[in-house]
Amino acid sequence: MRYLVILKAQQPDGPPPAELMAAIEALGVEATNAGVLLDVGGLAPSAAGARVELSGGRLNVVDGPFAEAKEMISYAVYQVRSKDEVVEWASRFMKVHRDNWPGWEGDSVISKVFGPEDFAPQQ
């Protein structure tokens, strides 16, 4: 099963501590070596994006920035055996932030990614 994890956060002023970046890298290497981390990336602030909405049969495009308490700042795609397993990886990622950047707050949104097996006819 594949899962998309999107990290939303309010970051303290200043750059992330070097210890945090080293811990993130180590966790990423561990997840890659375990064969569960498929892709990661940072996301630009919402000012660089847009939102496409469909309401009442009409499309509406709204350019960022969006007034949100937390910005989406990164994503990761995992291939794991269960939701519990991806929750464990996301929790470890959050703990790395807690332990290495005082004042940092955020949340990880975990969504299952449908694959071809989810659309196969039932027998």
Automatic annotation (TrEMBL):
Q: Which family does it belong to?
A: Belongs to the YciI family.
Q: Which domain of life is it from?
A: Bacteria
Gene3D superfamilies, per the entry: Dimeric alpha+beta barrel
Which intervals of the chain form a coiled coil?
A: none
Protein name (record)? YCII-related domain-containing protein
Fetch the InterPro entries from UniProt: Dimeric_a/b-barrel (IPR011008), YCII (IPR005545)
Sequence ranges assigned to domain YCII-related in this UniProt record: 1-92
Please give the Pfam families that the UniProt record associates with this protein. Answer: YCII
